[in-house]
Amino acid sequence: CQDKPGSCPHHVWNPDWKPCADKCHNDYDCAYNEKCCRQGCGHECVAITPIKPECPNSVPSLFFKPCADKCSNDYDCAYNEKCCYQGCGRQHLSPYTDIIQPVEYKHS
């Protein structure tokens, strides 16, 4: 069997979670909109997280500006956004559609 498209949602494992049991063995043990995902120390059926497309091409800035990360990974972003490096820090972007314009930084 092939896996269903999509990915398992991000989770934080807690060693105190009990019991450890596999409630599924592969994606086809689950409903049509679910995948069999590792959750803590066992597997269970969870809603599919769509695979996000790639980040758009970065637009290099020609001006000095302070760099700051607005996110560290895709899980920090809204459902339809990705955390993308854009030449100076990571930002929440819609895949292939948002274009970051260079911003001039003026010294006072």
Number of strand segments: 4
Unreliable segments of 5+ consecutive residues: 97-108
The fraction of residues in strands falls at 15-25%
| Number of structurally distinct domains | 2
The profile of the biggest β sheet is:
2 strands, antiparallel
Total DSSP helices: 0
Helix fraction bin: under 10%
What CATH architecture label of the largest domain applies?
Irregular
Q: What is the fold named in CATH at topology level of the largest domain?
A: R-elafin
Derived structural class:
mainly beta
Query: What top-tier CATH class of the largest domain fits best?
Result: Few Secondary Structures
Overall form: elongated
Question: What would the average pLDDT be, to the nearest integer?
Answer: 73
CA radius of gyration: 19 Å
Q: What is the rounded distance between the termini?
A: 63 Å
CATH superfamily of the largest domain: Elafin-like
Gist of the model:
The chain is mainly β. Helices cover about 0% and strands about 20% of the residues.
List key phrases describing it:
108 residues, mainly beta, R-elafin, 2 domains, two-stranded antiparallel sheet
List the helices and strands and how they pair.
Blueprint: E1 34-39, E2 42-47, E3 82-85, E4 90-93
Antiparallel strand pairs: 1-2, 3-4
